[in-house]
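Q: Hi! First time asking for a complex rather than a single chain. Here are the components, and I think there are three in total. Is that enough to go on?
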Amino acid sequence: MSHPLSISERARAGLGARSEGGAPDAAYLDGLNDEQRAAVVATEGPVLMLAGAGTGKTRALTTRIAHILASGRAYPSQILAVTFTNKAAREMRERVRGLIGDGMEGMRWLGTFHSIAAIILRRHAELAGLKSTFTILDADDQVRLAKQVINDAGLDEKRWTGRHIATVIDGWKNRGLTPDSTPGNEAYFFAEGRAIELFRTYQDRLKTLNAADFGDLLVHNITIFQKYPDILADYQSRFRYMLVDEYQDTNVAQYLWLRLLAQKSKNICCVGDDDQSIYGWRGAEVENILRFENDFPGATVIRLERNYRSTPAILGAASALISANKARLGKTLWTDRQEGEMVRVRGIWDGDEEARLVCGDIEAEQSSGRALNHMAVLVRASFQMRAFEERFNALGIPYRVVGGPRFYEREETRDAIAYFRLVRSQDDDLAFDRIANKPARKLGGQSLQGVHAHARANGVSNMTAARELITSDELPAVGRNALRKFIEMVDRWAREAKDLPPRDIAEIILEESGYVDYWRHSKSAKADSKLDNLKEVIQAVSEFDTMEAYLDHVALVAEHNEASPDGEVWLMTLHAAKGLEFPVVFLPGWEEEIFPSKRAIDENGEAALEEERRLAYVGVTRAMEDCRISFAANRQVYGQWRSQMPSRFIDELPEDFVQVDSQPGLYGAAARDLASHSRFDGAALETDTYYDNPGWRRARAAKARPAGAPPIIDGRATTVSVNAPGAAKFDVGARVFHQKFGYGRVTEAEGQKLTVEFDHSGPKRVVDTFLEAG
DNA sequence: GCGCAGCCCATTTTT
DNA sequence: TGGGCTGCGC
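A: Yes, that's all I need. Here is the structure of the assembled complex.
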């Protein structure tokens, strides 16, 4: 393959004669700070741009692209710019367009890792044993396929779930492994030691289905690059400049892919923030960014540390928090802003109360003129959302949950797409299975089992098996006729698809298949919205020139632009909040076992704890003006009341930037007084600042600390001491009483934290201040 | 096919 | 606690 430089491409890019040397005084450099400017003009050789939260990294990145183009270093088609999300890709495209005007059509290598890898793989599909029309499977298909593989292997599907094996296989692919290169010892614990065998079967099945899953897109690329040096060389010389966004989130496969491509030009600029690496559990390797200077010798490292987003208190709190991590490159965010509120930390009696107070704050902000969409509630896990949703509904506060079930994951959209997939690629058994009898067309379990058995016995796809079966008498006449009709339909659509625009063919398929009628006649309450969604599908299809393009879009751009009205409070997980910013941010549920998540730590120990801490850092740095952290002393989790400890992250916040508004005595001597009330009036507590003054804090700390221990002197203490260590008031064996759990006996004491065997609710960990002598 | 009872489980989820 | 899945009975 050759890559002639088209003149029109140059013209579109607005390029004059190519000139060496940049134009450091060009207008687009105006308004950049020194570091940003350095990151823009350091075009040659490897560059690591360590860009802290809110430091204008996208601006630097897009200006860098503009600079490369404007200085004639490369044509748009010679720049590879990869992101993780479509949203980021879109934003980058728009912003580069804003800088250079036209010429963006030539920038065809700006996209997500997966979309770019898919383009490359389609060009060389046969080298990976696929046809260029291969289908891209989504996560759901992967699980279903994995399930089939487990069943075929005769393993117990309950013991080894499809999801489990799919996750294991995905993990290997994230590391760039194939069945041949996966170390044998890794499979030992999975599926009776047969995991690699399952991996191999899974890959064989994919080939038969003419399909690739997400991981394959990258792994096939890598395999092809390694096996065919001429192809690799071709891309190496094409991509003169490479830019990578969110480098801290790259997995091994992506790293290998980048390294192969960058070997020749070495002009690779990776942008990221090790402190915001929160996808380790999905295969992201923070080490990639930590190791950058070793991987790319002679690399220039540029730190963007000037923050344009947040107040000094927010930055101070975030910086102190993240400094507890060991595995980091180290950055210090600063701002020249002076003004701003302290970060507020509030300890609250229980989870419901927390939701009430947060929503009360939101209403108060709203009535003082703050727009609802300038506020966000960020939680660790989605189960925490319910309390807030209930409260929002009760108060009539409009809110928006980010990240719920997505358009392309809904049943009806997936069904519709399965029809399209089958028409395009009749080997797509997953699509076949999904819709062969949906709507019911008398293709019951018997007939389909017959199809499967025949397909497996002859090593052919379900469609092919079906074709063969209708000419034999292996199936009962009813099934045979149904199958024949089904095949005829699919064949007819496939013929029509050659001549008709995708929108028309989509409509024909959905109508003639009876799928639309299926929902029209459905008594389900959801039928109307399903029908609306099907219309949406057709609408979406009509925006594409070919069905192939639409299907790729669906697989790779699993998002759907839905109207996003203003005037709604945002409610989402911390993960979903990455990359966003809000004037006011609420961070509830900062309690041990919830945040940091117990499960994460159980699974991954210290590394997971650091990742949880990065998540906390991401949360705090989303706030522009006002950050309000809270924790509850009691919380219902899975229907059980639990006594909660404040998160260790609370203790890591610096006192200088934090104002504590704990409800009086939650973790101090007044706990019993407090506990004797049946409820707390949120409004009263909010104005109750009596307990929030240094004297009270000192008194509280003094009461809590063991006799003889030095007092905490105000101003000297470096952390917030809501959780000051102290001696337990009760000895092991003591009878105690707790407001929620009743009577019990102390079985273990560790500082103020006691384990109590309650007579009726079993063993619990509680803080001694909640207990009275029983 | 459907409806219901019982059972199990329960982070995060860019593509 | 509650949702999602399964298996059973019609």
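A: Chain A has 31 helices and 21 strands. Let me know if you'd like any chain examined more closely.
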